[in-house]
Structure formats: C-alpha cells, structure tokens
Design goal:
Belongs to the UDP-N-acetylglucosamine 2-epimerase family. This protein is α/β, with parallel strands linked by helices and 382 residues long. Helix content is 45%, strand content 15%.
Amino acid sequence: MDKIKVMTIFGTRPEAIKMAPLVKELEKREEIESIVCVTAQHREMLDQVLELFQIKPHYDLNIMESKQSLTGITSKVLEGLENMFDKVKPDIILVHGDTTTTFAGALAAFYKKIKIGHVEAGLRTFDKFFPYPEEMNRKLTGSLADLHFSPTITAKSNLLREGVKEESIYVTGNTVIDAMNFTVTKDYVFETKELNDIDYNKKVIMVTAHRRENWGGGIENICEALKEIIETYENVEIIYLVHLNPVVKDVVDKHLLNLERVHLLSPLDTKETHNLMNKCYMVMSDSGGLQEEAPHLGKPVLVLRDVTERPEAIEAGTVKLVGTDKKVILKEVKKLLLDKEYYLEMSKAINPYGDGKASYRIVNSILHYFGFNKEKTEEFKE
C-alpha cells in the first residue's frame, strides 16, 4: 500500500468544528490521501465552518430538507454513501461523535466492509433516550467501529466495559481543543455588530438551549429563569444564541423578546462563538460541545440537562448539571454571580479534554494501524 485512502464524513456544524483540524492534519501527511465527504445534514451552519477552515469537500450529498426526519436523514446518507464508496473505495472512513450522519456513515461503511474510525468514541450517559438520538448513535457506531479514538480515559473505560478490545482504543484528547487554538484570538473584533457594543466588564452570560429533550417544558423553564435573572441582577447581560428551529425560537421570543439587556441572536459561526465564549463571564447550555470548549477558556458552565455523557468536566469541577428546573437554575446562577470563591473554583479548574494535539495522535494511530508507524503513538494523559 503506497497511500492510505482516508475519507472523513460529517454533516453538522459540531462535527465539522471537531473534524476540521483532523482534516488539516491528514492533508499534511504524505502517506495519506485525504478525501472529505459532507452529507450537509445541516447546510448553512456546516458551510460556515468549511469556509472558516478553508476546507473544500470532494463530495457533498446535500441531503438537508425542511422538517427532515431522523429516518429520512438515515436513508439518504445510506443511499448516497453506497454509490460513493463504490466509486472511491476508501481504506478507512472517519466519523465523529453522535449525529445521525455518524451512525448512518458507519453503517454504510460496514455494509461495504470498509474500516471505520470513530472520533470522540466512548461517551455515554447509559440512558438511550438522553440525549436523543445521540446516545444510541454513539453506541451503535461504537459497535461497528474498528478504531476508537477516545478523548479521555473515562471514555476508554466505557468501551472496555462494553467488550471493545483495548488494542483498538486510542486515548487522544478532544479535537475541539485543537480547533480552538485556531479560532480564539486575543483582541477579536466581532463581525456581529451588536456583540461589539456589549460591555464585557459586566457579567455577560452566554446561553444556548435547543436539544430535543428540552423542547416544550424544558425551554419554557429555562426562559422563565433567564427572565428572572435579568430582572434581579442589574449588572448582568444575557446573550442567547437562539436555534433557528421554530419549536425553540417561538418559545424564546414569547418570553424574552425585547427585554432590556437580553440579546437574542441567531447562531453564530464558529469563530464568533468561540470568541464570545472567551469574553463572557459564564455559560449556560444544553450543548455537548460547549461543556468541553468553555472550560478550556476558564468559563464555568451550567449544563441545562439532567444527564451528560461528559462526566470528566463535572469531576474536574468545570461544569455543573442543573437540568431545567427553574429553582435549581436560579440557585446556581446566584452562586456564580455572587460567590467569588465559587466562581474562581470553577473557572480555574483544569480542563480534562485535551492539549491541542488530538488530531496529531489520531493520524499517527491510523498510520500505526496500517503498518506505516511501528510504534503506537503516546496517548493523551489527563
């Protein structure tokens, strides 16, 4: 084998952010032919990341439709990749994390007996409906994968308990830290004018909340809590990056539209988001990725979920689970706003998710697997 054909497959913005530095690392290696395929499960938000990292996909399935269902996404990815695999014949495909693109991509590769590498492998909540459908996407992808690139020792331990062979698991750190080393700059000026007009000497709270399990009552409770926070604390500004889905946006607008010191913005591109995080006081989110990103910047995170597949940050003290109970949210926000020692304890805790070299380790591990490197690369140590 002269070169390894490595195809990266992703379809959403969170995947793209974490796969972009890996694509860049793959492109550096003369032993690898790097091929990029996007499903465009999310179209506009995906394209923002591709532009930021200057990645031009070799193949674009362009599957996104209005009100698309999980079944529809899965079937389109399977059919699109089947034809592509016949044409390209990759030696290994790489998928990331927990999206429907991830699971369907792995399944399509399995049907063609193509090797599968799972980036960010081994995260678990042990509840198949939380988060939904991500928990089962991860587990099913893990069952199909040949190589498991776990970000932490905890994730590796989860895989071992499920019977995955230890020699197929590589602890690499999380590629999102690699990405943030590229996106965050000290004197950043926002393209979104409203963000430049905010006084960051105030206690600015960055908020995202959009997950399926929070639709309805959960989002209602979060918005009611945010309204009370802004009415109680005069030195607080809230920036809520509101998901475009009407199921979320309509509820947020009902409770928070036109409130003083509440800024309702559409989702930002990756660079804007990371630099906003860097300037804010704290983060409230039901996102998975922000639980890894914000601690890297020393920002405490209140997780608006009842369970998380990222327990390392809880153990490290950088994030805290608060769920969507209004009273619990208000109690924890009050502590972070008024108790300086508590805030410093969370903000200065060590982030357990990486050192910026995850992509390097992953590519070296692939080369080792295919016999190009004799020794297994040194793993990430938390």
